């Protein structure tokens, strides 16, 4: 109860002599400093709002315009062409105000209006400039004069030293494609997957849809596009993520891995100290908008960053909701079946890594036992959503359970101190990587809080990892955070010779608070049921993670081909060979995630990688004839074109999805849309590129690389493939499928991917592939202490 007493600022007792008031100066000081920190954050937020609001100009430019106008008036010329005099006529008269003062006030008002007009004009010009996407379709190394002029204008109108959200108001809205174009592209994408009879039937359905219901739905969609910042994102979040009633564990959440070959420290508490501190440093930069906007050639939308911290997904019987709080001064920690609240601020300052390590060690050393029903409580977030919503409403809406649940949901993020050891280790490092991936994706099915925006996992041997909820943001946003945390942990914060965090400890820190629960037996029964559902899902998951080190993007680029297109063709070739082994010889609908963050509030679009060109090439390769390299390059160029179309708002699937949502609102049925949206994605793929290359030195320290991350399969009879291209000579793959499908196998598919990569390189550059017949040996596993 010591923690509870420390949290009370004052106590009073009524006695016969009167009221005996006892003040806790320490608690009052903490309240004062906490309030001061909160007000500082509000002022910073207000200042940033002003700076972002006037971008690409700056607040100081207002003073420049005012001085310029007043200086011009001093020379007895009127730059306003009579407007200043008109403003002066409408100012309220006062016998105490000198005519000169009225003139100055009128000039300042005119200057302000002129300044705001210039800002509006500059933002409008920048928005138009950012709407130009022809540069993406130009041949690499051959830039047109139009694009050169465009790039110069973008630099002129972009301003200097932008904050994270400075470009938000200047980003264009996602355009609604013409329905005729979308249907044409859709039919082209399914042609290699259908025989002539099926394709003729689908063409007829598409034609009927276009001539009847399609234009009506399109009208409503265009109306929404005029009103909303993005006509897709809110419906995508709600209907694809939040309305899903199946478990989000494996089916929706995804993970990120630690360094592949390095464990910075083997001390669990120390690794937790640096990692947690790095996340909180990122949050501080995020709150101050000091993070540099991510950009390709032009800036990308940063709206998804807003809900990164202090966010949770709340279950509902029909739909879930995403709740976000402005601030949180603590994190939630799980260890051996117990939940703790760990304050990360003391006297208004952020705890040092050494102090966080000290607090984490206190949790690790805590001998207390879990409350009845507490140990496996997290299974509720891993099971079906409807039972969790009902249990939450019945047993966690009042009393001590509500207070403890609020502590978890309102925490900055969630941390699991895992008693297992993970990473690439032991006599079978390949199998250990597979276990590591499964551990991050589902753990024991109850030792993660899958509803939190992200959960950090710290293992007993010092390895760490991350599990992220998908509804609030996509993987590149979380990857940006994860890259910063890994780099800051190892290259900035570091460890002392004993492997502990650097710095001193304030021994007066209050102990982490153990959360209390009163879980009745009925609730415990539902926890057991949710755990059974989640455990069955986890047991059915087959995973394989490997690093391909024979060659990487460096060799592919020397062959003058896009690395992403090369890998996508290898994946399709591997899938085709797997189906041939099962006497099916088929291609499948292939999903590759592409971002649409060139537009305001953009998220993702689907690249339908399986094209007529890719299928023609693979059939030629597997048909016994040695295919012309021109077929290979044609398939690659087609893939690049599809990817660029998706990025620039001319994709297929998000448009059709939104048309389907409109049809449901109107209560009308479309056989065409119903069939399109029921097609299974048997090969779901995603690339996670390294965004902050400057944080890592892959030349001198190639061992400091993350293995990337992965996700579960989308279809029960399909594969989920995540890959990351690291440096010039490595490609990491994360392959998932289900044991329950007799036709799939993660290791079997992985072997076919390796073979396909080698075969394609041999076809493209036979002279280079001969030099590397065997896989390069990985760097030696290190532990820098």
From TrEMBL:
Record keyword Ion transport present: no
Transmembrane segments: 50-74, 104-126
Catalytic activity: (R)-carnitine + hexadecanoyl-CoA = O-hexadecanoyl-(R)-carnitine + CoA
Domain called Carnitine O-palmitoyltransferase N-terminal: residue spans: 1-47
One Pfam family from the record: CPT_N
Domain of life: Eukaryota
Keyword Lyase attributed: no
Main localization category: mitochondrion
Membrane topology: Multi-pass membrane protein
Protein's GO biological process: carnitine metabolic process; fatty acid beta-oxidation; long-chain fatty acid transport
Assigned protein family: Belongs to the carnitine/choline acetyltransferase family.
Record's protein name: carnitine O-palmitoyltransferase
Source organism: Myripristis murdjan (pinecone soldierfish)
